[in-house]
Automatic annotation (TrEMBL), chains A, B, C, D:
Keywords: Oxidoreductase
Protein name per the record: Glucose--fructose oxidoreductase
Enzyme Commission no: 1.1.99.28
Entry-linked InterPro entries: Gfo/Idh/MocA-like_OxRdtase_N, Gfo/Idh/MocA_oxidrdct_glycsds, GFO_IDH_MocA-like_dom, NAD(P)-bd_dom_sf
């Protein structure tokens, strides 16, 4: 559908993940590249929160120095109950990747925005609940419930990465930290209005509450501490889409970046403990 | 305007505080009482957050037993800078009460929803920055920068109450705890998606993330941990207003409750350390 | 015993509270004053934690400017269970004051060290569990389970104060914040190795982990973040006692300060809502 | 020295890491095995905190079900400053491993106590500050500033592991979580008196404050919330040593377990991205 829309001269705004297979993602990115006048955008909404944008700005301005390491997780528990019924989500053909496709891709979208391109991936996956009940009896789960990875970035920095859909008690734990030579930044989407920053000359970590000094907050509220919401991320995303269509800067991620994300999570899915250079 | 609208047969939705003077609030409540077919509602938006509604439900269902005590603060720092220019906000005639009128009334709205009516108030106020710069030279601040109060509720429970607009580093610290004979509930609006609950038979405080099991969340998002936002409180408020107009239950606060809130904050403002029975 | 020891030429180190009655405390302070060569010290151990000492140093050095307000609580739940047996602790004759004598006095010891002398007290008390079981049947509890107070300090600053021994889920919640014209300091003994500080020019509150730059920590451990313990407070107290006996500076609190603390908590106990000038 | 002491019939209590090289650790374990009547113990003090022991007991009793995953870090920042002088610690011959030998081994000690034996390790290391100043000019740092690893446990569970001595703002961040099929446990040594537990039937994570219901706390204090300290871990360790010498159960870790820890960190040090089966 996306390719047909592009060929029909339309802009395309897609939810994530971009495609069920890496081949489809590649094909979509090719068609998008062949239609440069049309805007493509992917719904990686967590890139739009003021706190995340502020974190990226800190990194870009060099405020934490050279980047040394990234550590990130995205955990939820919506598949933790073994009695949860089998569904299409559990299939490779219709669901595609599991935790990586649903959750991990979000973490990758933030990670590459903060750290730059990934050079090498080594990963393991796990199916914690191999069979799930269905009206026809137990059926096999085909995609991963969790994944863990080691990463090397093109910059030389290191990364550790984990995602799970069976992490009891976690609801939207998209949590990461960036280690720089001059400071550290920490974030957890479950408290998406807090950014924790430490700089070399400071006593400890400082809690920055989301406020009008962070990107895109002031349009929603003039006062700090008045929480930005999950859904408002989507409002910013739509604004960015419209701005790009009207000739403004494209803030991404477009299909090219989407393909970069898919390449990383599919490498994690097939690594089985071996290093894969990207 | 509100009274004219009521007399003209209109429903009235007003921001808080209800009026600059207690006499005006009384008059407005009287007019509203004389027009029972029309809906009045006040914009105490913090009553609408899913976490607050869940807290009230816990109290109402008796899950923390008999209520013993309330402890609450609402602090911000928007007047902490002594170089902030004098404005109409600093006047009794145009700004009305200070921290009590802007912030404290919100805390009262939640407090009486949780604890029931207040029987007695003893309070102190303080003007931390007595003079502020203006183009004509320094001018006097007429209303309080902060207030503290002791309360007795009609139920016999105790209360401590504080509000400040000069509390350095606080942005939306509407924070309270309710002590019951069987448990304790804690909340802080700066982390409005967390409710902390302890029950007698539990090991400690449990962090409840806002989710679809809390009132009014599911209409915004199907998954817990995906943060509800400050502005979405206002959406719920508008929905409640429309529902009341269309004959549904009035979830309050109407002008009668608004008058109750005004009575309490004006008692705090004039107490000067003496107990005032309400 | 303390008076006899002083008269016998001994130094005296006493646990808190100093005495069961204010008259006894007065008498003890008088005897101590008559024996100035002998050291008296009271076991207000929470004054000795590195984090508290660091907080006091920040205040003393003027780093948060002029003091505006104090807000403090000390809550535990050891009497929350109504089936807890009646004991001597519940009597005025043998237990003395209730929550004020056991917990509140600790909070006062920190409060006056931070804020200076108290000028006026207005308080309420509450007995949440009026009767407790005993082998001879239910017996009356004579002293308060909780107390709340408003305070004016000699400096003109305001204070709010609360203590409870029936606060479900609280174990050692000696928690306070000091509001200054240039900053705010927050502390909670349940996380006694954290001090939260905000200064006017900073983005938010910074978490200071206890470390060797805080008073008296380096003698226990050379590295920050390696937690100081409750019992180690007592080690510092003993060291301070020995130092005072050997002619070093007396870091307090001696019997004179103990009497100041007793005066405040007994004023709270008898206020019954009326202002008491000290 | 340790081997000579064992041969001389002495019990041996050693600080960690056990040895500079894996060969030495092997030799020490061999000598210890040849002297089974003598007690050996290693100073992995973090195993002794009441919160850690409580966590291990929860796991052992099956309260979080089958173990799925471990995620742990141990970060400090004592080498983050590039101007810190070169010292023997930076050499393989005298300092041995870097972050792995100083910090990572502690995390391994807790990890295997919680998760059981490690079957496979894949790791990367990094030297963030390759040269450090010395009186003779800049000298090379030979051992790693940080390491990250993927792990497979013998049980089939997964693990992610990271340690750094250049993590700005971290002081004693020995932090981990254990994911089970029925619950999750989280811990951070910087708040060593808190254990966070979620069980399948609960609303969220509950904060368990260290108290007398946790192992070895009651001997130090009768009341929960009165913080256990870093140094008191060492007191428990010494008590365990003496108990083992006097014929009580050996709570470990002895030289055999020490060798297991060394085997893991040395595998991490030499992996260079390749999987190593243990």
């Amino acid at each position: 559908m996306a390719q047909a829309a592009l060929r029909a001269g339309k802009h395309v705004w897609l939810e994530k993940p971009m495609a069920l297979t890496l081949a489809d993602a590649q094909s979509m990115a090719d068609v998008a590249a062949a239609h440069p006048a049309q805007v493509t955008m992917l719904g990686y909404n967590y890139l739009r929160s003021p706190a995340f944008q502020a974190a990226r700005a800190l990194v870009t301005r060099g405020e934490i120095g050279d980047l040394l390491a990234f550590r990130g997780v995205y955990d939820e528990d919506y598949c933790a109950d073994p009695d949860l019924a089998w569904s299409w989500r559990a299939t490779l053909a219709q669901g595609g990747l599991g935790a990586l496709g649903d959750l991990g891709c979000h973490l990758v979208s933030q990670m590459i925005a903060l750290m730059g391109p990934v050079a090498e991936v080594t990963a393991q996956t796990q199916i914690a609940v191999p069979m799930r009940p269905s009206p026809e009896g137990p059926k096999a789960v085909e995609n991963e419930d969790s994944a863990m990875a080691l990463l090397r970035f093109a910059s030389g920095a290191q990364g550790s990465f984990a995602t799970s859909r069976v992490a009891r008690g976690r609801k939207c734990r998209l949590q990461w930290e960036v280690h720089g030579s001059l400071g550290t930044i920490c974030f957890d989407q479950e408290n998406m209005n807090e950014l924790w920053v430490h700089r070399a000359n400071e006593a400890g970590f400082t809690r920055h509450l989301t406020g009008p000094e962070q990107p895109d907050f002031a349009a929603f509220c003039p006062a700090a501490g008045h929480n930005f919401g999950f859904n408002e991320q989507k409002v910013v995303e739509a604004r960015d889409l419209v701005a790009a269509i009207h000739g403004g800067a494209h803030k991404g991620p477009d299909f090219a970046t989407g393909l970069e994300i898919e390449t990383i999570i599919h490498a994690m899915a097939r690594s089985n403990g071996a290093a894969i250079r990207l």
